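Example complex used in Figure S2.
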Amino acid sequence: MANQSFPLPDVGEGLTEAEIVEWRVKPGDPVQVNQTIVEIETAKSLVELPSPWSGTVAGLLVEPGTTVEVGTPIIEITVGGAAASDGGPGSDVPAADSAGLSDSSDSEASGSVLVGYGTQEAKASGRRRRYQDGRSATSAPSPSAPSPSAPSPSAPAPSAPAPSAPVRAAQAPPAPAPAPAPTGGVVSVPAPGTNTRVLAKPPVRKLAKDLGIDLAGVHASGPGGIVTREDVLAHQAAAQPKPLATYAGDTEPWLESGAVSVDGRETRVPVKSVRKRTAEAMVASAFTAPHVTVFHTLDVTRTMELVENLKKDRDFSEVKVTPLLIAAKAVLLAIRRHPQINASWDEAAQEIVYKHYANLGIAAATPRGLVVPNIKDAHRLDLLELATAIADLTATARDGRTQPSAMTGGTFTITNVGVFGIDTGTPILNPGEAGILAFGAIRQQPWVHDGELAVRWVTQLSLSIDHRLVDGELGAKFLADVAAVLQDPARGLVWGR
Amino acid sequence: MNSDIGEDKVPLLQLLTPEGARVTGRGNSAYRKRIAGLKPEQLRGMYRDMVLTRRFDDEATSLQRQGELGLYAPSRGQEAAQVGNAYALAPQDFVFPSYREHGVLQVRGVDPVDRLEFYRGTDHGGWNPLEYNAQVYTVVIGSQALHAAGYAMGVQRDGLVGTGDPAKDTAVVTYFGDGATSQGDVNEGLVFAAVNQAPVVFFCQNNQWAISEPTTRQTRTPLYKRGEGFGIPSLRVDGNDVLACYAATQEALERARSGGGPTFIEAFTYRMGAHTTSDDPTRYRTTEQEEIWRKRDPIDRLRILLENEGAIDGDFEAELRAEADALGERLRERTRKLEPATKTQMFETVYATEHSIVSEDRAWFEAYEAGEPTDATYATSAPAGAASQTAVAQQGGTR
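Predicted assembly (896 residues):
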């Protein structure tokens, strides 16, 4: 009976990391060799990993939704001997361990297997600290990421009750067994807050256990409040996920892995991956940096002429030329004239960090959600190099191949809301940056040009700034300079290097 | 995008239906005669090798997912093509596989553990080709077609063709996929084999996917017609029909051994799994298509035939399952213990005799590995080369 830990393998050729998507086992479960234990997502694909050993799951070391490096231990398995911890010392783990999981959204299959950690703050062991460091290096740079705490991996699994153990009704509802169906789990009804023991005959208890149903939540119709077999089956039927009413060709990818409510009117989808990182980053930014947004409407006809000319230019024949390229160049020129905006607020050190380089982020909507990869050292690139970099970055993002390193270290971001036909917006800063420019749709509009009414190409710019370190005056000057270049790209010759 | 290369448009030699019944049409009597003599124990042997090949596949895939192999290319779905073909071989025949011919190597008797050395990266090959008359796995797409054509020309020059002595006359088989037919190497191999009338069988397993590219992106003509263009007798067989693959290969081998020259066989099959463990087929093909082919599983149809003809029973199946389990366990145990070969092994098998340049390279490498100062020109030339590559890349970027 020795504990073996399974390090995350490189399932592709030269992959360095993967995200844990869903555990298929929980602590205390017996596992067979080659039984699927976890689903991971690599840069290439979703992959199921088989267990290298037969034995009992001693502990899951990584939470779903977490990206870990190849070689990181992800699960501990007690190899050899019969399964089943015998309810010896330590098996009576206080209910507090699972209390944090009583929220109904967490009682969904994949969430509940992580009984014992994932929700508590503090008291992280040395081992977990190391793991946490690795995580912050590879995932979104959110200062407020919840720090997962962990039990010591050698602690006996709390969720393996001895067969004869009484059901501890509301104190610590046993985790519902993960439904083998890959999509969604059973939405369990929270247990009523009673402390009384649920009455049921042993075969009914066994049935409930096999179905992963908490008897405390089942309506009892038998004499004297006994839960009958029919009650359990009725509960099971009611709790089955209902198929969505769909029509041919209807794809709703955002509902994937969600569980439909009992009445079929709502779907609960676990927050994972890009959605989770986006949420963390936006909350962190919106509630730490006081945002101010300034707007400007301008005539970009000359930019449009320049774009048309560049499209015909032999040097640019192999790269896509768009107004966004000129806007990016305009931002880089404006940063050069107002370097104070290319900075970051370091709350912990009470310092402002001025960056002598510009890593220009471009927000991109991808099938996996919003990602903001940045072009490293964009200030060094000439126009053609910048065009190539933007094309590479967007192509990589659309293919879902953006590496975490490409999304960290940004200093300023452009969000091209115009591609959606939208005039403007009030963008939220990418955490750690002091400015973000929204580039609106370019439309032909009546405009006073040279003292006469003319049809001109007109757009709107909006700039959000972190008012802790950038004042309105600086923001206004910066935006005016961006606009000046877009109004007359020749301005770039004057301000360029 | 549909061209006339699909299954419905092209005649296909089939002797065993997907439902496991023998085909009794009039057109294929010559081939039916070739399988009429197959005894129940031979059919059982084919079935056993196909089942063990699939188990080898599953176990190797799991080992890769457990971090024990760097890569693995499964042969799932192609067992009939490979095993049927290999059963027609004579001991003196020589085979040149790609990286997916696990069924052929199973029949040739290459130890399954040795076969995983290559995929674990502990050895450049894994076995001595002369011991089994089977070359090691070849990963460069299609290059084995040239090796096979050259070897077959050697067989000719050794006078081992057309002697009439069945223990002496020798044929060569090379294996490749539909994607490899787009490679120059395969076409060059066909040219040399054809003009020299070399005793070689080109066994093309058209599994319909060159990684993620469908056959329709590789050819406008059924692949077996490629052979005809080179002046090589060619046919298409049902690659999921072990009997058809056996009969067609036997005919081709007889032609080769008797001096009749090469044959091109297109075994029309389907890659039921991923291209390799690094591939995710859900990104480019539909589950509907996979489901159609799952119903044509080559192992199922042979099992049904054997059951209906009373050649196997429950005991046989149970024994075979136990044998497969034992194979799985042995693979797990032994593969985890495979250690890398010596680093200088790569210098030892390049030439049969001492070679001055290779010996020099080896001496430099040993000194480098030992941490001794090495020849300065080696050290300085590398960065210079790297710098010029960068310059070229930048020029390329601004073109």
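Confidence is low (pLDDT under 50) at residues 376-399 of chain B. Chain B has 16 helices and seven strands.
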